[in-house]
Amino acid sequence: MRAILIVFSLFLSLALPVYGQQTYVGRYDAYGGFMDLNTPLINLNEQGFNLQTGVRFAKWLSGGFDYTIGNGTTSLTPTMLIPSLQQSLGAQFGQMAAAGLIPPGYKLSVRTSTRTENYAVGPQVSYRHFSAVTLFVRPDLGALHVVATPHPGDPIADEVIAQLTPSGKKTDWTYYFGFGGGFEVNIARHFAIRVQADFVHDNMMSDLLPGHNEVRFSIGPGLQWGRNMVE
Question: Which residue of 15, 55, 58, 210 could cross-link 133, Cys pair, CB 3.0 to 4.6 Å?
Answer without folding.
Answer: 15
